[in-house]
Amino acid sequence: MRVADYIVEYIRERNVRTVFMLSGTGSIFLDEAIAKADALTCVCARHEAAATLMGTGASKLTGDIGVAVVTSGPGAANAMAGLIDAWADAVPVLVLAGQVESRHIDRSARSFGIQGYNVVDCVRPVTKYAVVVDDPVQIRAHLDRAFHEALTGRPGPVWLDVPLDVQAAEIDPAALAGFEAPAPEPWSNGPAETAAVVLDELRGASRPIFVVGQGVRQARAQGELAALVEHLGVPTVCTRLGYDLLPYRSEAVMGQGGIRGRPHVERVMREADLVVSLGASLSTGLVGEHRDAFSPQARVVMVDLDADQFDRANVAVDVRLRMDLLGLLTEMNRQIEHDRTGLEWPQWRNHCRELKEKSPSAATLATEPINSYYFVNRLEAQAGRDAVFVVDTGSAYYVTGQTLEFNDDQREVTSAAFLNMGAAVPMAVGASFAAAGARVITIVGDGAIELNIQELATISDYERDIKVFVLNNGGYSSIRESQDALCTDRVLDEPAPLDFRAVAAAFRIPYHRLSAVDALDDDLAALLGPPGPALIEVICDSRQKLMRPAAAHDIRTHDGVTIPTRC
Amino acid sequence: MRVADYIVEYIRERNVRTVFMLSGTGSIFLDEAIAKADALTCVCARHEAAATLMGTGASKLTGDIGVAVVTSGPGAANAMAGLIDAWADAVPVLVLAGQVESRHIDRSARSFGIQGYNVVDCVRPVTKYAVVVDDPVQIRAHLDRAFHEALTGRPGPVWLDVPLDVQAAEIDPAALAGFEAPAPEPWSNGPAETAAVVLDELRGASRPIFVVGQGVRQARAQGELAALVEHLGVPTVCTRLGYDLLPYRSEAVMGQGGIRGRPHVERVMREADLVVSLGASLSTGLVGEHRDAFSPQARVVMVDLDADQFDRANVAVDVRLRMDLLGLLTEMNRQIEHDRTGLEWPQWRNHCRELKEKSPSAATLATEPINSYYFVNRLEAQAGRDAVFVVDTGSAYYVTGQTLEFNDDQREVTSAAFLNMGAAVPMAVGASFAAAGARVITIVGDGAIELNIQELATISDYERDIKVFVLNNGGYSSIRESQDALCTDRVLDEPAPLDFRAVAAAFRIPYHRLSAVDALDDDLAALLGPPGPALIEVICDSRQKLMRPAAAHDIRTHDGVTIPTRC
Q: Are residues B402 and B480 in the same domain?
């Protein structure tokens, strides 16, 4: 059996059902093995960065490993650019890259053979495992190790570089050695003890909040979290990757916090005297620097399975609990059933509920040109119970993060740590294949869509049920706002927007245009009715500002000047 | 003065006139400094990889440093993907990247602050110099060092990561320390002695050839090379990056060699008993492995300013001469004037001339659907004396490499070591700004153009005189040929081509379509008449094969199976 065929068989046995790729001579035997594997869907992207982002989008939705296959040299270089999102957002993605033949690899050289270079050393800083598979009989061990690293602990991307000769080499699968994963580091305390610690902290608090992040989903503990929040009513702030964990209509759910979050959440975070962080990374974007977002007197309890997170957090962590969230939350729910004493905060809960109720509702902003907050509000109302929102950066990111409610089973996929401009279209393709029939709603700005615009053709080729809403506000509006805020001098001219009707024709995808606010509900109903691809241009108010909570931090120059920023 | 303003003033003093960029919050003070600098043209790309490739394209044309400015995080990641071409093809490019504030940088973390990551460690393996500018008063030293490394010895890309606080810091330019470049390593022999060595080798040979590469242009020694080849008549083979050094109509000029070169050159290379390599890297693509492309008895003399090239070459080098080519070629021309004894090879020269004359001419292939060789032949005839051809990969690369003649002052810009699919459109933008009014002719396949299709908008925005010819042969034809050659099983479906008329409308660029072979000359004359942007779809024969010289090498698997490849 060829190594390339073994790889395909291996990933299929690990339940990989879709591979995102762009073929090439450097990966030709991998490509061939994939093409002939019957129960593997092969999605041909139009750019290798997009292939990686498709794998990332698929994995962000399911937590399963996303797989991208690319060729050597420029293919690998492009794929590399799509990788940092998986690295920072802790997404398990496997890149299988072609490489020139082993004997041409010379790491001191600028290029190897034809279309090869030292990509492994370039991606090592942004992957959990990156190697050249230089011996065919090591293939099983490398795959074992790659899957282990990608999925264990804090997830992340891994990279296997497979030279052409290794791809084509014959091996005896029965004779291959595997990789023995090291025994996991034991928890310092059991779930019962850890749950008791957290509940004691809660008992000692007057104004507790939860901050919940994607670690909850990665632990497959959403149900336990929802039960806990429902039982205790602790006001709960979401990170962006934890945004769709809980329905906004649930009284205790405050919505997204941080510099791109809902304005009232800023106050909830500032007033809390206890912060219990559950699978959230307390990044700069969420909590600012040091304790900017929290009161200096607040106590911070952090639960994470990765102890490195305790020191990384932008908040000095008072209580560090390395623990699996499924075990912890299950145990907390169990202990509460036995003893609710001291776990009531009626005044604080009322206060937070009132702040939430008083926060402005997007439903009232029915102006023309269309206000993007109003648009997202109306879109969600008609999107369907299991819709997957795939959101790009810039104003699309702000507006959705301050408007979407996830009251049914909707989900969100986005680039949180990096705000990777243009990533939404390829991530939508990945999410669509991973979502098994669910509708995908993509929201992207007219500037950002250009960075992966070629993937509209992939949506069209594979006839995915993906509606791409382009918020046309005349360019890079959030960068424009930053420039307005920070620059005293003349700023750069912005590029002119594209002709989106022609864009849709070019990539063979149906086009719609929304501009009348009165007809918005009817228009949305009509175009969301039939399944299939569509590009919908939404003519938005280019002068509309974004809601910005207080600045998370200022820029302090070396000479002591402080420049305020809300970017 | 702010560091950002100092950087802009510095690059202007180093004769940088154009900056390729995409703005962002992480580079906001750099962006502002560029926007307000009057004598600096700022070209806003639509993707950061394209910005880097524009800098690369500009530099490939002129040899001057190309400059790209990008934001932190995803901007830097995209720019990184555009960098490997400059690395492998030895192009001086400076990337100025934004970065989060210095105090947020923590190289052990997956991300820094908002939209920052450890890009410097990722790009170090593919740059000559890559640092974070962490101290404002070091800015001059870092810029000095970056320019020195980029332009000295074998050129290449360099990367300065400039944190936001450093961009905004006030400095006193007069107080900045510079970088003292080390004294260059002395040549082991002077130009006169080295010239004598080469001429003695030529005197001892019966069938000498020159192999000429871009090192000649980097040494600004084109005129001396042309005089030498004219005087001696030594049959001269070009690498791809040396392809436009000499006019094909010159009797001794054989054209491009290697696996994507002209078929008759393969025989010239194989029959030679002496190879004098002048500024060429003797890559796998040119000479195959070991001595595959040359006779085992041939003697190889290599002249390069970088001694590392002698060991890197895929040919065992018999005589290694580390020398500046301008000095060497000037001296050779001088010595020949005094003494031509033993420097005549009439029989060999006749033989090579006959091989060249007998090689098939593209001018005879006037079939319909249009043969791409015929198309390139007709296009060059009407392109204009100073046209710059910017050529993409795949079949466009093969066909132009076997057809273009450069009989006037035409130039070529392409991705040689990496065959970077889709790089031509952004490189054309860079070349157009660097070419000061010359017309740019871009030739790209219908599959490849998608990878940077968004830059058609940049061509349109800046009204560049760039004609983009899309060879529509129904997909990735060269990959298809590789699959036909190598794969026994079913291969992947190819994606459907775009609607190029709509593509042109989307990006606001005039569209033309060429399909009638009889009208080709008239149609080309009409559309090449007026200056300005145009997208021209050329309907080519999708069943047409490429001319492939003998396989450069085979793929040998670990278990000894040999798979022939001509890819």
A: yes
* Residue B49 lies in domain: 3-175
Residues of B in contact with A128 (CB under 8 A): none
Domain CATH number, residue A433: 3.40.50.970
Are residues A210 and A91 located together in one domain of the fold? Answer: no
Q: How far is A366 from chain B, CA to nearest CA, in Å?
A: 30
Residues B300 and B387 both lie in one domain:
no
The pLDDT tens digits of the residues spanning A33-72 come to 999 998 899 999 999 999 999 999 999 999 999 999 999 9
Within a domain: B552: no
- How many domains is chain A built from? 3
**Residues of A numbered 140-169 whose beta carbons fall under 8 angstroms of chain B's beta carbons: which are they?**
156, 164-166, 168-169
| Closest residue on chain B to A556 (Cα) | B165
The CATH number of whichever domain residue A343 belongs to comes to 3.40.50.1220
B contact test, residue of A449, A557, A561 with most B CBs within 10 A: A557
Q: What are phi and psi of B378, to 5 degrees?
A: -70, -35
Same domain, B275 and B311: yes
Task: Give me the helices (H) in A260-324, please.
Answer: 263-271, 284-287, 308-312
| Interface confidence (ipTM) of the complex | 0.94
- A304-318 pLDDT, tens digit per residue, is 999 988 987 777 899
Query: Cβ of B390: how many Cβ atoms within 10 Å?
Result: 30
Residues of B in contact with A259 (CB under 8 A): 114
Task: Tell whether A472 lies on the interface with B, counting CB pairs under 8 A.
Answer: no
Q: How many of the other CB atoms lie within 10 Å of CB of A16?
A: 20
Q: Which of the listed residues A175, A199, A220 is the one where a domain comes to its end?
A: A175
Pick among B1, B8, B21, B28 to test the A interface (most A CBs inside 10 A): B28
CB contact under 8 A, A450 and B508: no
Residue A185 lies in a domain: no
Residues A236 and A136 in one domain: no
Helices assigned H by DSSP within B383-509: 395-401, 424-434, 456-461, 477-486, 500-506
Q: How far apart are CA B228 and CA B332, in angstroms?
A: 8
Contact A496 B503 (CB under 8 A): no
Do the domain assignments include residue B335? Answer: yes
pLDDT tens sequence across B342-397: 999 999 999 999 999 999 888 889 998 999 999 999 999 999 999 999 999 988 99
Q: Do residues A40 and A17 touch, judged by C-beta distance below 8 A?
A: yes
Is B178 exposed, middle or buried, given 0-12, 13-18 or 19+ CB atoms closer than 10 A?
Answer: exposed
CB contact under 8 A, B506 and A499: yes
H-assigned helices in B298-343? 308-312, 325-338
A19 domain residue, yes or no: yes
How far, in Å, are A196, A213, A216 from residue A222 at the CA level? 20, 10, 6
Instruction: Determine whether the interchain pair B169/A121 forms a contact, defined as Cβ–Cβ distance below 8 Å.
Output: no
Q: Kindly state whether residues B459 and B500 are assigned to the same domain.
A: yes
Of B418, B454, B563, the CB nearest to A453: B454
CB-CB under 8 Å, B81 with A28? no
Same domain? For A495 and A459 the reply is: yes
Q: Angle at the Cα of B66 (from B61 to B70), degrees rounded to 5?
A: 140
The answer to whether residues A229 and A366 belong to one domain is: no
> Is residue A484 predicted with pLDDT exceeding 50?
yes
